[in-house]
Write a structure and sequence with these properties.
By secondary structure, this protein is of the alpha+beta class. It has two domains: about 260 residues, no CATH class; about 150 residues, no CATH class. It has 14 helices and 18 strands. The strands form six sheets. The protein has an eight-stranded mixed beta sheet. α1 packs across α7. The longest helix has about 35 residues. It starts with a helix and ends with a strand.
């Protein structure tokens, strides 16, 4: 516990109800000042921790995950069981653009497609930083902080400060009862009464992003989630970590009142602990990963830690997501064939040409990443056989109908899964003793 940082953080956190707290920085300028000041104090506290001879233990580690929506039942599930979908480019995009359709209209014609992923990802002791192509992690409205000890079970895939994974493919993983929830105030106010009931008794910290306008005082906002999370972690008595993208921890140095401070030695102690726990629980350390994993990497072969892209999960995810996108393209084209009266022989010829084009010009890896949902576009000549049979307005209408239909099917699959889980739980109850068999 770091009493000095706890005292500083508590100056910006007010209790507004039972287990309910709120960040009380008045505006973006104040929050930015607090964030910069806090980072310096954290580095100073880390150096003093090492100088004191204290040692980090398993109880000092916790998992942090950011999200845009709280999972139903406060349970982590495979994407396949959550009715989740993404969108991919419409295969007629080039022709639609040529026919004068606006970028917003083309965007509205993107096609839904399910996402497959069997792992849930966390950083240790802090939010993972944004990667170069996205500000997705710190721009979310929710962060959940929970003790690592509560997830040290057979579902743990690896232990990595910036990419720890839990396997939820075969069974769900509940959010820890000891978790702290950081929720943007507007999101919290929009929660269903059922979700509010599920959160009853949990520790919740609210922040109001509408207050945090940037220095130019325009309509954009600074991203407060990382600063707020740092405040909450310090308030809990721990020392937050900061990363460099999704690749490694970030060594920080500051000069404070003329004295030089660095967290380099603290990070070494922190990663040594990660290495120790990883060996004990998984048989694979953080520093010495298997040689076969190193050989599979295209670059950074000597980087410490096992990452998502090192694992079997990533390869399976690539293949399934790639195939799903082709399946949904075929379903979409078949829908248009039926609605527009395209002859079967013409449709089959066009679709075969399209599939050959995909196979020849794109590798499966191009579709594996959840962050990139591109698919091959149908050439002008073939696309005209579809588009010339319908007005652009009707084309948009048909695409929306397809998306709504597929979304409903995916959501129904999610409901069916939840019912099956409930039935399994019910069947495991001894009616005489109400005891659950495990």
């Amino acid at each position: 516990m770091n009493d000095e940082l706890m005292k500083y953080a508590r100056g910006f956190i007010s209790e507004v109800g039972p287990n309910l707290y709120e960040i009380n920085c008045d505006n973006g300028l104040m929050l930015e000042y607090v964030g910069n000041s806090l980072k310096k104090q954290i580095v100073k506290a880390k150096q003093k921790f090492i100088e004191s001879g204290k040692r980090l233990g398993e109880e000092d580690l916790f998992l942090v995950r950011t999200m845009e929506k709280l999972p139903d039942d406060l349970v982590y599930r495979s994407f396949a069981h959550r009715g989740l979908y993404t969108t991919m480019r419409n295969p007629f995009e080039r022709l639609l653009e040529d026919r004068g359709m606006s970028s917003d209209e083309i965007k509205s014609c993107e096609i839904v497609c399910p996402i497959y992923r069997d792992t849930v990802h966390f950083a240790v002791n802090g939010i993972v930083s944004n990667v170069w192509y996205s500000d997705d992690f710190t721009n979310r409205g929710i962060a959940v902080i929970e003790p690592l000890e509560d997830h040290l079970n057979e579902k743990l895939v690896n232990l990595n400060p910036v990419d720890t994974m839990i396997d939820v493919g075969k069974s769900d993983e509940p959010i820890s009862q000891n978790a702290v929830f950081i929720i943007e105030k507007n999101l919290y106010n929009k929660l269903s009464s059922d979700m509010v009931r599920k959160l009853n008794g949990r520790k919740i910290v609210l922040f109001d992003s509408s207050k945090y306008k940037d220095l130019n005082n325009d309509s954009s906002y600074i991203l407060p989630l990382e600063i707020v999370t740092d405040l909450v972690i310090c308030n809990m008595g721990y020392l937050p970590q900061h990363s460099r993208g999704q690749t490694s921890l970030n060594v920080e140095t500051y000069t404070i009142d003329g004295d030089y401070y660095s967290d380099k030695n603290y990070l070494e102690a922190f990663t040594n602990l990660i290495d120790k726990i990883s060996y004990e629980k998984l048989g694979v350390g953080y520093y010495n990963i298997p040689e076969e994993l190193k050989e599979k990497r295209e670059y950074d072969k000597d980087r410490f830690g096992i990452y998502h892209w090192d694992t079997k999960y990533y390869e399976e995810e690539q293949s399934i997501n790639y195939n799903n996108r082709l399946i949904y393209i075929e379903k979409y084209l078949n829908m248009l064939r039926e609605k527009l009266g395209l002859p079967d022989n013409m449709f089959n010829y066009i679709y075969k040409r399209y599939c050959r084009y995909v196979d020849l010009n794109y590798s499966k890896a191009a579709y594996g990443s959840l962050g990139h949902h591109h698919i091959s576009l149908i050439n002008f000549e073939d696309a005209q056989h579809f588009i010339d049979r319908v007005s652009l307005e009707k084309f948009i209408e048909l695409t929306k109908e397809f998306n709504i239909s597929e979304q409903n099917k995916l959501e129904q699959e999610e409901r069916n899964y939840k019912i099956s889980v409930m039935m399994d739980d019910f069947n495991n109850i001894d009616c005489d003793t109400n005891k659950v068999h495990v």
